[in-house]
Amino acid sequence: MQLAATQLSAHLQKGLRPLYTLHGDEPLLQQEAADAIRAAARAQGYTERTVYTVTGAHFDWSAVLAAGQSLSLFADKQIVEVRIPSGKPGKDGSAALQQLADSVAGNDSTLTLVLLPRLDKQTRNGAWFTALDGAGATVQIDGIERAALPQWIAQRLAAQGQRVQPGDAGQRALTFFADRVEGNLLAAHQEISKLALLYPVGELSQEQIEAAVLNVARYDVFKLSEAVLGGQRARVQRMLDGLHAEGEPEVLVHYTLAEDIRALKRVKDAIADGRPLPMALREQRIWGLRERLFERVLPRMTDVQLANLLHAAHLVDGIVKGLKHPGWPHEPWQALHRLAQSLCGACSAGVGQRAR
């Protein structure tokens, strides 16, 4: 049984399954989901908890299997928690997890909780994960996308009795908050909690938020690609500055930008050869949000724009490797900024200007 994270609370109010599997790369949301399951279990008499962390190929799975069949003298019900940080239980672990899934049926004395990182589609279709899903409830913990972050912050503030000002002033405050914590949800939670300590319940001004919230944003090159293709100039600037400060290799950032340009050119050429846009995107393995962005920007991008961007990407490739080119910054990050903003400008013509 698969559940969305937003459905978990309502599900737990109806009763507990004997097995829960949580998988995702957002530590805060996974922790909160696990806490909610543990709290519901404790309320129903599951007073003992045993935690196993799977490390290495020689982990003793027999201890996990035995735990589900034994109780201490002091508890009638127990929680057995299995953490697999790598997401790869191995051959022995795969067999053990399938055996564990088979054993939970009818076992009212043990609730099993399996915690995993984000899993790819192939792993989710594997025998051990399918067995876990069939025996209990599976919850995929997705991160909060940048567009949804202001609303998430507002909901968290409301839960502690605080709110931003109505209208545009409040939206500006939430946008400022989101800019400072993007990509770092655990720190975002800490900043929200800090506001509860600093200010009373009620309305928060933008000045109060700006004075209190630290810049704890964290970025990755994959999100940079989405921001560039979305024509989000201000966000691209912040992300490049953040990646630079975090020590991200210039070569990796350049590769991400150049690959987007090459992919745009390949799809454009395929369309010129008569292929429908959806087919051309599939052939280039463009999926999800990138697919939607490509669909929006490609019809308005010209061959001349793409040729100029390809040439610029070639020049910046040399700059990040120590070469110099007339008319271009000698410093690699400055050249990357220029390349990113050039691509961003070309893309913004297709999606409309968006400041954030």
Features:
single chain; 356 residues; alpha/beta; 6-stranded parallel beta sheet; two-stranded parallel sheet; 58% helix; 12% strand; globular
Task: Write a structural description.
Helix content is 58%, strand content 12%. The protein is α/β, with parallel strands linked by helices. The strands form 2 sheets. A 6-stranded parallel beta sheet has the order 1-6-2-5-4-3, sandwiched between helices. The chain has a two-stranded parallel sheet with strand order 7-8. β4 (77-83), α4 (90-103) and β5 form a beta-alpha-beta unit. The chain is globular, with a radius of gyration of 25 Å. The two termini are 37 Å apart.
Mean pLDDT: 91
Secondary-structure element series: EHEHEHEHEHHEHEHHEHHHHHHHH
Please count the helical segments. Answer: 17
> Helix proportion of residues, in percent?
55-70%
Q: What are the low-pLDDT stretches, counting only 5+ consecutive residues below 50?
A: 350-356
Distance between the termini: 37 Å
Tally of strands: 8
Please tell me what the overall shape is.
Answer: globular
Radius of gyration: 25 Å
- Major beta sheet, specifics? 6 strands, parallel
